[in-house]
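Pipeline run #58 for the internal structure catalog. This entry was flagged by the ingest filter as a single-chain record with no existing model, so it goes straight to prediction. Upstream metadata was stripped on purpose; only the residue string is passed forward. Reviewer on rotation: M.T. Logging verbosity set to normal.
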Amino acid sequence: MTKILIVYHTQTGNTKKMAEAVAEGARAVEGVEVILKKAADATLEDLLAADGMALGTPENFGYMSGMLKDFFDRTYQGAQEKVFRKPFVVFISAGNDGSGALKAIERIALGYKFKTVFDPVISTGKITEDILEKCRELGGTIAGGCQMGIY
């Protein structure tokens, strides 16, 4: 069974809505198990067991949330050499344009040697049905690609 890990942080609930939509899209792919976890609860074991992952954060001061950064800090040492080219996607709830948060995540992903497999979903402002649909597509894309072994 293909496992997709969704790690997110939220303070207002917007990123949680996006994470749940990503999970919905991933679950729509037959044979996929979704592990949906707040960043504070996600572990190295979760990361290592996943075939692919989605990372979600609010944009805080033009950067990712401290809790998502904490997840990276806690897992980096143990993940080295074990997650080479693990596929991942990003979703961001931004008060600005999301570019600072995205750039920070992409820089860290280079250190892990993760593989970006789809354009990020960045919401600026209110979470609309259009944004949620894009999140479902994001979840289905990461899950389907991992399930078919194309990543």
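catalog note: The chain has five helices and six strands.
catalog note: The mean pLDDT is 97.
status: ready for reviewer M.T.
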